[in-house]
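JOB MANIFEST
job_type = single_chain_structure
chain_count = 1
residues = 150
[input]
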Amino acid sequence: MERGIEIFYKKTAANSCCFCICFCTSLSLAFFAILTPVRHNQTKKRQNISRATLFFGILFVFGVLFFIYDNARAATVTWTGAGGNALWSNGANWSSGTKTGSGDIVYFDNTCTNCDVTIDQNITLTGLSMSATYTGTITQGGYTIDINGT
């Protein structure tokens, strides 16, 4: 069985910086909410809110926001070749309908109309995957492919 080519950016501790910032911010806000004294002149309804509920609520909101951000960054787009030319920069050649971005993982398989690709710009990607069934030719020219995961 033949295997395709897969090149992916491996996340490191440096890429967890966003997570650390979100986590530290949520902890700070949560501890601030717990340690802030309740004033006697506040309404009864306000006093009934548990500080622990507020703490975990803030942690939950920041966790959900980070999860959405982290998963929305990388999109997998497949080369279709349906754009009328073989240019990488033509968004109509990609399954997303737009040209690739730095957070994308590109995929080449045998489902393309025109499987040959001409790279006509410098490219930054999160990953590149090529199935063993891909029969096209990728012409790089003098442009660079940077797989860095941003």
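[summary]
The chain has two domains: 11-73, 74-147.
The chain has a mean pLDDT of 74.
exit_status = 0
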